[in-house]
Amino acid sequence: MAEQPVDKKSFKKLGTRHKARRRAVDLLFEAEARDVDPADLLDERVELATRDQAVAPVHAYTHTLVEGVADDLDRVDGTIESYLKDWELSRLPAVDRAILRIAVWELFHANDVPPVVAVDEAVELAKELSTDDSPSFVNGVLGQVVLVAPQVRAAAAATRAPRPEADA
């Protein structure tokens, strides 16, 4: 029997993050289809939601994901490509690229998201939005990325750590 969330508030928070991820996938997908910068498209949507009450506001975590992926796109894509067997990133379905980009970014940068959650969410999004083969494909790629994610996080933390100033 699966464990239930501790309380309804925790469960709701998980649902909110899922919706934020799904909207981030939508925005990354649309940005690629329209050949526009994802951060610019995000700004457009925020402005539209401000002007039009019928448009849902953009969740803060959607901001984090879209801006994070846009800022680190080369490393994220390079990581994904390094784990594709007999495939090229450009040949993947665009929705799978968006899902993988978000999950890899989370694995590398989202300290509050356990790796298993990032992978599970990506697989769920692939089930909802992509082909029948996509969930297992996404899981396989991310299963390899999970193995290197701790080293990437540690390297990033080491470069961010304040350096002690030399005594004069």
Order of helices and strands: HHHHHHH
How much strand content do the residues show? under 5%
Based on CA atoms alone, the radius of gyration comes out at 17 Å
Shape: globular
**Biggest β-sheet strands, sense, barrel:** none
Please report the number of helical segments.
7
Description of the molecule:
The chain is mainly α and 168 residues long. The protein is built from 7 helices and no strands. It has helices at 8-34, 38-51, 60-71, 73-82, 94-109, 115-129, 134-160. The longest helix is centred in the first third of the chain and has 27 residues, at 8-34. The model is unreliable at 1-13 (pLDDT under 50).
In summary, what is this structure?
With 168 residues, the protein is mainly alpha-helical. The chain contains seven helices and no strands.
Features:
mainly alpha; disordered N terminus; 7 helices; 168 residues; single chain; globular
Describe the secondary-structure layout.
Elements: H1 8-34, H2 38-51, H3 60-71, H4 73-82, H5 94-109, H6 115-129, H7 134-160
Helix pairs in contact: 1-3, 1-5, 3-5, 4-5, 5-6, 5-7, 6-7
